[in-house]
Amino acid sequence: MESQESQESSLFEQAMARYQAGAPAAELIDDFVAITDAAPRQSSGWTCLAWLLLLCDKPDEALRSARLAVKLNSQDPQARINLTLAMLETKAKGVRDQIAVVQQVLAVAPEMGDELRESINDGFKRRPDWPALLKVKSWLEL
Q: FRET pair for 128, CA 20 to 30 Å: which of 7, 77, 117, 122?
């Protein structure tokens, strides 16, 4: 019998594989809702859910998910970028603070810049000319 944790992990891995294979973001939202319901303390599920919601132009829902992701893992730059994007799109205050934290993390762990560059490029493939992402990219100089 498979443990609860490995079931959650394989569901996450399957959903990520589908995303990376090009599945539309809208098709994956329910999977990540299930993942976050099953493992509400895992920041990665909330980070992915926030990203998918942003890609589907649902910034209010994305803001809630991104805030939870950052609360669970304050050092994850992708979670902070998602929060920044959601804040920009909902006109929430505090954007500069989020960008400053991402810049600090990148100063300490520059290798994370490659992952963020890939994520930003993926965002533009899935949502071309995304105004908030254009701003974030220019602020981070990625």
A: 77
83 CB contacts (<8 Å, ≥6 apart)? 50, 63, 66, 67, 69, 70, 98
pTM of the model: 0.92
pLDDT tens figures, 63-94: 999 999 999 999 999 999 999 999 999 999 99
Domain CATH for 88: 1.25.40.10
Nearest to 139 by CA among 100, 83, 90: 100
Give the total number of structural domains in the chain: 1
- Which residues in 81-103 are b (16+ Cβ under 10 Å) and which e? bbbbbbbbbeebeebeebbebbe
